[in-house]
Design a protein that fits this description.
256 residues; alpha/beta; Rossmann fold; five-stranded mixed β-barrel; 6 helices; 9 strands; globular; binds 8-iodo-guanine
Length: 256
């Protein structure tokens, strides 16, 4: 129905927008269609301030089609793992060979000030669940495409990389949990992305993940965590990360 509504045959790449990334679709190309998430089966508006609730089909200058998913269902909403995976599965069904997952997250590295974009190199799925059921033994080695990470580094060689830990939320971590996660190898903490990445890989897509550090994780700085801080860091970083995302996506489409 998405394709019908946009008069487009197929989607080449999909991109899910997380906290702080709401504006990032603007520089990708020409808007073909925008649909309210509620009008597309299986999608929901999030109710989270700072998260938009629409699906967009965008045509790039090279005439590729990008599905921009501005409505993500988080695991903490309690709608189940299929609702969480619905966006990437819709993208795969519409033909997308690659998905770009963006998010806002907490950072464990004190050198990453709020507003720093970080490439996801790998993840720790600490939700205790999987989007898959049955004997579906998917290989997650190189889940986060080395090819697209290479393209991102060509666009901006200063981009750091880190391991993203997905926790169930919706509460943030305690400082003790953050120390524990640090020893376990986490550099970033959030409440999305890992389950979607697994579902995307299982659906045969190439996966790329990029986080915006919107706050230092609990106990890393003196500041208490607030959702307002998250939104402000996103607004400030918006012009830079929008340009970054558009360049990464454009080159990924050109080189595939
Ligand atoms: I934005 O510090 C954002 N999302 N778990 N911890 C977790 N999720 C987050 C955080 C954070 N910041």
């Amino acid at each position: 129905m998405l394709l019908q509504a946009s008069g487009v045959d197929t989607i080449d790449l999909a991109c899910t927008l997380g906290s702080g990334w709401g504006e990032a679709a603007g520089q990708l190309g020409e808007l073909v269609t925008e649909i309210d998430a509620e009008d597309v089966p299986g999608f929901h508006t999030s109710g989270v301030p700072g998260h938009s609730g629409s699906l967009k089909v965008i045509r790039t200058a090279s005439r590729a089609h990008v599905l921009v998913i501005g409505a993500r269902t988080h695991y903490y909403e309690g709608k189940g793992v299929d609702a969480v995976a619905h966006g990437v599965r819709t993208a795969a069904a519409a033909g997308a060979g690659a998905v770009v997952l963006t998010n806002g997250c907490g950072g464990l590295n004190p050198a990453w000030s709020p507003g720093t974009p970080v490439l996801i190199s790998d993840h720790l799925n600490l939700t205790g669940t999987s989007p898959l059921r049955g004997a579906h033994f998917v290989d997650l080695t190189d889940l986060y495409s080395p090819r697209i990470r290479g393209i991102a580094k060509e666009v901006d060689s200063s981009l750091p990389e880190g391991v993203y830990a997905q926790l169930p939320g919706p509460h943030y971590e305690t400082p003790a949990e953050i120390r524990y996660l640090g020893t376990a190898g986490a550099d970033l903490v959030g409440m999305s992305t890992a389950l979607e990445a697994i579902a995307a890989r299982a659906a045969g897509m190439e996966v790329f993940g990029i986080s915006l550090v919107t706050n230092l994780a609990a106990g890393i700085s003196e500041e208490p965590l607030s959702h307002r801080e998250v939104i402000e860091a996103g607004q400030e970083a918006a012009p830079r990360i929008s340009a970054l995302l558009a360049q990464i996506i454009t080159r990924t489409l050109e080189e595939s």
